[in-house]
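Problem 3 from the worked examples.
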Amino acid sequence: MGIEEYGGGQGPGTDVLVVTTNDVPGYRVQEVIGEVFGLTVRSRHLGSQIGAGLKSMVGGELKGLTKTLVQTRNQAMERLIEQARARGANGVLAFRFDVTDAADVGTEVCAYGTAVVLVRE
């Protein structure tokens, strides 16, 4: 069951609908496959650490760190979608992100949710 069956998606070529809700209006959960996740750990770049330290003294957005975090979240979500697809899902419900420090050397980002098979009602 591909994206065309429920008419939505996260972007071009994506056949797995990812939502933060527990259901999708107009569709029913035919099968719950189980928890899926995408995990990535990014080390901190020394240059961005120094720049962030200086910026934190005067205030304002840490644009370099923001960009890195967005890229990291996207990679974690891509891995979650790959895992869901590999297990035969066409949807992920109750999608969330968890972000933690990883041993003071980087940031761990985990995207997780419940893989399901959705069908139109």
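Problem 4, a separate protein:
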Amino acid sequence: MRWNRFGIRSSVMAAVVASAALVVTGCGSGASSSTSASPASETPASASPTSASSSSVSPDSATPTPVTSPSVASPSASAAAVTPAVDSSRGAAAAVCSAGSLKVAARQAADRPAGTGIGAAIVEFTNSSAKACVLKGHPTVAGAGNGSPEKNSPLSVTTTGSASPVTLAPKGKAWVKLTFVQVQGEADGFCESGAEPVVYPTLVIGLPGAGKYQVALDDGQFAECDNKVTVTAVSRVKPS
């Protein structure tokens, strides 16, 4: 014999319910239906707390915790792994190429103004040291004074393009382009401005923080008009 949650024996409860049903039957079907529904409604009520209690203490409810932790930690570990690489690359780019770490050469440019002079030249910088170094900026240009720096003849420089750091690995190269006011005509030629053309066997090329270098063309001499030159910024891309 079982006891319900109110401490009443099931058999007694059943008898009481049966008697109540007989008495109420004569009063109408509406009273009967409301009385019979009352015991049925107790069943889900008693089951509902049990279900809620089970879900709150079930071991399965703790399962998402270890699964969630690795997925959250994984991006952090990935970010930490990337950071040193970025920092180390920035550190390598900090040193400016010293005056003794570069070799400089010059040759005529393929793309140059119309005329009979040199017109334009490409200046090439090679890192001859054992360590990476950085070049940045636009060059200064002067006609060399035959071995006497005080006799150098600075050219008026017009810059083109924005300057950004260029990191050179050992044996790495960078370039600038010099474009002159072109000499016209044959023989000694002439300048459209009416000035006399000037010829320099060598030029002195300077870069910010990296010193100055005297350089000759590998295929001629620098001939120009008006002591003017247009220069590009140092670039890792060789100009034409």
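Solution to problem 4. The helical segments are 10-25, 29-57, 64-92. Residues 29-57 form the longest helix (29 residues).
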